[in-house]
Amino acid sequence: MTGKPKTIAEYLAALSDEKRAALEKLRKTIRAAAPKAEECISYQIPAYRQNGMLVGFGATAKHCTFYLMSSSTVETHKDELKDYDTSKGTIRFQADDPLPAALVRKLVKARIAENQRLMCK
After folding, report:
1. Taking the mean position of all CA atoms in its chain, how far away is CA 112?
2. What is the pTM of this model?
3. Does 2 fall in a domain?
4. What's the pLDDT score for residue 121?
5. Is residue 3 a part of any domain in this protein?
6. What is the CATH number of the domain that holds 61?
7. Interatomic CA distance for residues 113 and 51, integer angstroms
8. How confident is the model at residue 117 (pLDDT cuts 50, 70, 90)?
């Protein structure tokens, strides 16, 4: 692919088969956990909006990434994320060892709740 992706499908099409498969699984899990979220491309990565930015995902040369877009969500779930490479609002994983769907669902639901709380302030 040349240029910036305009859709998630374009973004995924440019990846290796292994990374595409891992991120398609992640995408499916996010969509199931947040059926009202709008898919978009934000900062050149696939992302979801629901009452603000919700989560996103991407791939780099060395790993895949799940962006929680919230340092507090990473901190709140640090015990469950202790086996993963994390940083402020980000979880990195290998394509051949994807994040468990149950964990992704839990994190997406936590982000939905966090965005809802922020809207009500």
Report:
1. 13
2. 0.92
3. no
4. 62
5. no
6. 3.90.1150.200
7. 10
8. confident
Distances (CA, A) of 39 to 62, 92, 96, 120: 25, 21, 25, 23
Which pair of tokens denotes residue 3?
Answer: 């240029």
Q: Is residue 51 part of a domain?
A: yes
Number of domain units in the chain: 1
Average pLDDT over residues 77-88: 92
Count of CB atoms within 10 A of residue 9's CB? 12
Structural domain range at position 56: 8-115
9 vs 86: CA distance, rounded Å: 26
**pLDDT, average across residues 2-31:** 93
Tell me the residue type at 4. K
DSSP letters spanning the chain = --S--SSHHHHHHTS-HHHHHHHHHHHHHHHHH-TTPEEEEETTEEEEESSSEEEEEEE-SS-EEEE-S-HHHHHHTTTTTTTSEEETTEEEE-TTSPPPHHHHHHHHHHHHHHHHHHHH-
Cβ burial, residue 25 (10 Å; 0-12/13-18/19+): middle
